[in-house]
């Protein structure tokens, strides 16, 4: 099983990034997919989740209205569109695949918001 994130980088405040997480080795369409983030010295935080068929989403209050999670089950990929980025969004962003007792994580991608 592999979850591979991409799309992170350095962006100025107010900018946008689109993260991708490509999954392999799992029946992707069964899994709830989530994005988490962890900033230095802080606990890991759930950013957004999407149901297996993409008909339900949840967001942390801190990102509501700015971030959008989506998925393409034909491509085994989940996305996180991040707009109006703030310095406090700086963190390592990881994707998670969850189905019943099966729980997989990617390695993460760094997002840095700074001028």
Could you give the order of the helices and strands? EEEEEEEEEEE
Count of helix runs = 0
How much of the residues is beta strand, in percent?
A: over 45%
Largest sheet, described in full?
Answer: 7 strands, mixed
Give the overall average pLDDT: 97
Task: Give a count of the beta strands, DSSP E runs of length 2 or more.
Answer: 11
Oligomer: single chain
Kindly provide the radius of gyration, computed on alpha-carbon positions and rounded to a whole number of angstroms: 13 Å
Main structural class: mainly beta
What best-fitting shape do the alpha-carbon axes yield? globular
First-residue to last-residue Cα separation: 37 Å
Q: In which range does the helix fraction lie? A: under 10%
Quick structural gist:
The protein has 115 residues and is mainly β. 0% of the residues lie in helices and 54% in strands. Strands 2, 4, 5, 6, 9, 10 and 11 form a 7-stranded mixed sheet that branches.
List keywords for this structure.
four-stranded antiparallel beta sheet; 115 residues; globular
């Amino acid at each position: 099983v592999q979850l591979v994130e991409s799309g992170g980088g350095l962006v100025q405040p107010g900018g946008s990034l689109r993260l991708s997480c490509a999954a392999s080795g799992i029946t992707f369409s069964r899994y709830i997919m989530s994005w988490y983030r962890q900033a230095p010295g802080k606990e890991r935080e759930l950013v957004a989740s999407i149901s297996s068929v993409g008909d339900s989403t949840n967001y942390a209050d801190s990102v509501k209205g700015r971030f959008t999670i989506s998925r393409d089950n034909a491509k085994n990929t989940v996305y996180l569109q991040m707009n109006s980025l703030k310095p406090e969004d700086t963190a390592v962003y990881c994707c998670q695949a969850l189905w019943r007792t099966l729980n997989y994580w990617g390695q993460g991608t760094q997002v840095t918001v700074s001028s």
